[in-house]
Amino acid sequence: MKARNDDFKERRKHLDSFSDEQLKTYFFELTDQIVDPLMKLAYDYTSPAIERSVLLRMGFSSLEAKAITDRLNEHNLLQFGAGQVVYLFCKQHKLSIREAGLKLLEGSFIDQMVEVFRHETK
Predict the structure, then answer these.
(1) pTM here?
(2) CA of 111: how far to CAs of 72, 76, 91, 102, 114, in Å?
(3) What is the mean pLDDT of the chain?
């Protein structure tokens, strides 16, 4: 087998003086640097598919979840999270989550939620 021309020992010299605990800390610092941009994307961006998935987990059927997501998207509320909009509405009106989602689906309270989140878009 042909010998591999490897520079590993050269590249790891700056780690020679690290203790196990320092290596572990350094590892997690590097991991955070890799994961932070992904976490930022996850917090800042969503999609209708993700929001439908959230609503499914809140107990809505797939047809209801799609309709609620579409309704919220029409009114630019999807950016705040479908689950958050439904949850906040249910708390404001003392309804169950399901009742709140179905009321939002009817459309009569959508303008109220647009007003609630209006200050967030500035």
Answers:
(1) 0.66
(2) 10, 11, 17, 15, 5
(3) 90
